[in-house]
Amino acid sequence: MFFPNDCFRFKEINRLPEGAKTDYRSEYSRDYARVLHSPSFRRLQNKTQLFPGQESDFFRNRLTHSLEVSQIAKSIAIKLKSENPELPVLPEVCEIAGLVHDIGHPPFGHNGEAALDKCMRDKGGFEGNAQTLRVITRLEKKELPDAIIDNDNHDCRIGLNLTARVIASALKYDKKIPILRDTTSGLVKGYYESESEIVKKIKECLVENPATLDRPFKTVECAIMDIADDIAYSTYDVEDAFKAEFLTPYNIVAVDETILEQVCEKLKKDNITDITVSDCRGRLLSVFADIWQEPIRRQKTIIGDSDFEYNSLNNMLEMFRRSNRLANDGFHRTRLTSKLVNSFINGVHIEIDNTNPVLSRVYLDRETLVTVNILKHFSYVVLINSSRLRVAESRGNEIINRMFDQLFTGGGHALLPEDTKLLYNLSDDALWRARVICDYIAGMTDRYALEFFGRLFSENPQTIFKPL
């Protein structure tokens, strides 16, 4: 069996004054603190999760979503370890993986990601997970390198200088994004060319003979985080939609068949090919079963099975009232999401890889997987794809495109903040300069992006005395 070098760091520095004790924390505790105190993590508080942040302080943002994913991921790890204490799963690393999984997310949601990728299509691309890896291994300013770039234009920054196991927990897609892509190609999920040597080193630390692997590299903690993200997304986006009065349980189960057909098409991409529109509706009915079961049971008791009409007016009115109560009452919403999350966590299982335990397979059982994916895709089709949210995100698309064009062409880099301008001028390589601008825009919050856009193009910009 291969014993990995989990705690490898790219650079060890004596961070504390001489004589200060550092042995009270594990290496992963240090990593947790570095992530939690990083500016990139704080900025998630004003990046869109489902509804734009300025709409209400109640709805989840990328920060609160990441905290929830972190808690669910750690709970999954603890659950698996309780069943078998010898499992090669590190709950502390799962917790950190949840915190960092969206740390590279740009402003304005998925439209912001698509806009930056379009700007970078012939310059190495942009993708949220790739940016997460770049943020934690390059952009964060925890450790001062001897030089930013060397004589060969190699990036020498080490970001948060995290352990190999933690960095690997953020590597969701084991694929290098091409420098040049066809203009018609879609977004590629993976990691940038600029971080390829880091990925290679991480693999060498954690697995035996990484070049001989017969499947994509994905650690057990990364797999747990990925499942936790799906669980959080599939339940809490629906809960927020109830609070926002976008949805109720009643109009979820009564949704038009064309919506469920779109959900089925997305399920096919997840290799779930045997679910019909009727199956989808049945699954959604079962999720909200408490709403329908009591009125049906009561009416059966009163008039008997033989004369029972499922579509009777009184029965439907009672279901409608119970549906509205669940959507509008925080106690009922919380009880539903808690029940779903607990059920989904209990559907997580693990299959040990005896050669490389760190790559052990984590998966949802079939029944849980189908329910989670139906809820996840339903949220995307009905909410994220809705005209109201699309209009809000469309503005973000235009903002990012215009900012990038302004900063990248015709000496526009002179408009950058001083520290970013210094980075830009370190090399005359076009790919380096494009990536510096891309990093700057990707790191913006929604609010800051609107403000900076206003400085560039608005007739009523911010005062020049407010720092960039």
Task: Give an overview in words.
- The chain has a two-stranded antiparallel ribbon with strand order 1-2.
- It has 468 residues and is mainly alpha-helical.
- It is globular.
- Among the domains are: 27-220, Orthogonal Bundle (Hypothetical protein af1432), CATH 1.10.3210; 257-384, no CATH class.
- It has helices at residues 27-36, 39-42, 62-83, 91-100, 109-119, 128-139, 164-168, 196-206, 220-243, 249-253, 257-269, 277-287, 289-303, 313-328, 330-345, 366-384, 387-408, 418-424, 430-442, 446-457; strands at residues 348-351, 361-364.
- α17 (387-408) packs antiparallel against α19.
Task: Provide a compact summary of the structure.
By secondary structure, the protein is mainly alpha-helical.
Oligomer: single chain
Please count the beta strands (DSSP E, at least 2 residues each). 2
Low-pLDDT stretches are: 13-20, 300-308
Structural Rg: 24 Å
Secondary-structure class: mainly alpha
Strand content: under 5%
CATH architectural category of the domain at 27-220: Orthogonal Bundle
Q: So how many helices? A: 20
How far is the N terminus from the C terminus?
52 Å
Q: Name the shape in a single word.
A: globular
* Helical coverage, percent range: 55-70%
CATH superfamily of the domain at 27-220: Hypothetical protein af1432
Strand order across the biggest sheet?
1-2
CATH class of the domain at 27-220: Mainly Alpha
Q: Which fold name fills CATH's third level, the topology of the domain at 27-220? A: Hypothetical protein af1432
Tell me the series of helices and strands, N- to C-terminal. Answer: HHHHHHHHHHHHHHHEEHHHHH
- Biggest beta-sheet profile: 2 strands, antiparallel
Mean pLDDT, to the nearest integer, reads 86
